[in-house]
Fold this sequence. Notes:
Blueprint: E1 2-5, E2 11-14, E3 22-23, H1 33-50
Antiparallel strand pairs: 1-2, 2-3
Amino acid sequence: MAIGVDHEGDLYVNGPTSLEPVYLEGETAPHSEEELTVLAALVAKVVREIV
């Protein structure tokens, strides 16, 4: 499992068996605890879908 930012600054999640990363379209770096909580929930949802 990898969560990262590509060379263009786009956030992605890559599962243990996925060939292509899943990009989190329209998401940017969080600037508050509330935004971080929302982003964490989105990442968790994506992870559950790809594993």
